[in-house]
Amino acid sequence: MEQTQAVCRTVRGDVDPRALGRVLSHEHVLALLVGPGPSGRPLTDAEFDDAKVAAAVEALSGLKELGFGTVVDLSPYGDAGRDATGANAVLLPRIAEASGLNIVSGTATYREEFSPEWVRQASIEDLVHRFVADVTTGIGSTGVRAGILGEQPTSDGHITEHEARGLRAAARAHHLTGLAISTHTTHGTMALEQIDILVQEGVPLDRVVIGHMDNHPDLDYVRRVLDRGVSIGFDSIGKESWDVRRPAPSHQEPDGRYDKPAIRQSDRTRAHRLAALVAEGHADRILLSEDLTGGQTWLNPATHGRHGYGYLGRVFLQDLEELGISHQNIDRMLISNPARLLSVSL
Fold it and tell me: In terms of DSSP bridges, do strands 6-10 and 13-15 run parallel, antiparallel, or are they unpaired?
């Protein structure tokens, strides 16, 4: 009888899941660069790529000393640093090599208003084909293979046809690849509805991470999500203030003020909610991360702006320990839980 081997698929090849170390499970390492660069002049495409790599390597530089060995990049096509065709996923192995970290790439589509035209026009079958190819042969034409399906999104308080199509495609790609699914909830909403769609598609819920549940204001709702058997992401740590994302006004709209609301979610609240869930026995189904991007860093000068990726390991974990969360449970949320979800049998 042929034996199977569990591996984690990184952008530089398959590795033993036991070697991942601490894992940042929801990041966007190509979305850190803001502005034209130090010269002040427009950059060529190659220079811009080099600048993105340099910014990521610098931002990641303090993680190894904090015990982190792996970063999961969940950037979807056309958003969060990933370009419309996925071509710049080719930069991820360069970042992994220079930083000395494992990087796992996701593959996903995003909300319709941020998606490239090919995604908006794609059928479920088209998306399944793309996701499976991204896992088996490489994202776009890069040869860089995805190791997780996500972050697959839904909107604030509703699910569009476009978003349901993407979720169903990710579910069907899961059945063909075995990879786990990681979702994006907008401010924590529609988590239960996401789960309903995945159940309809026959996805085992122990292979699902519902993202951004630390942003939902009702802890009882988060408990209801956990009761369904999924894992959840407390993955916006350090993001205490952020703009509600909307497409930029078009050049045809008149000059003047326009509505752009923002949200506040303190890490003190996150820490207390997390401590409550851990005390109730949920530590084996929670993952931690920061969802750090350059465009939001300036809104959080005391967290991401000061500590960058080191904030979770250097500051937030101390807060958790002061609230009585054990080192064993911290290791569950940062090491064993993501390793389990990133493992796939070959």
Answer: antiparallel
Quote the CA–CA distance of 301 and 311 in Å, as a whole number.
Answer: 11
Q: Spell out where 28-120 has E strands.
A: 68-73, 102-107
d(CA 173, CA 25): 20
**pLDDT tens readout for residues 102-111:** 999 999 999 9
Mean pLDDT, the chain, integer: 95
Is a pLDDT exceeding 80 seen at residue 346? no
The backbone torsions φ and ψ at residue 160, rounded to the nearest 5 degrees and listed phi first, read -80, 165
For residue 40, name the pLDDT band (cuts at 50, 70, 90): low
Query: How many other C-beta atoms can be found within 10 angstroms of the C-beta atom of residue 302?
Result: 12
How would DSSP label each residue in 69-87?
Answer: EEEEE-PPTTSTT--TTSG
pTM: 0.96
Count Cβ atoms below 10 Å from residue 139 Cβ, excluding itself: 27
Instruction: Write down all domains in the chain, each with its CATH number in brackets.
Output: 6-245+260-345 (3.20.20.140)
The values of phi and psi at residue 262, to 5°, are -135, 165
Q: How far apart are CA 221 and CA 122, in angstroms?
A: 33
Closest CA to 198 of 244, 152, 259: 152
262-264 vs 241-243, strand pairing mode? antiparallel
pLDDT of 244: 86
Q: Taking residues 12-35, report their average pLDDT.
A: 94
27 three-class SS: strand
And the tokens for 234? Answer: 């407390």
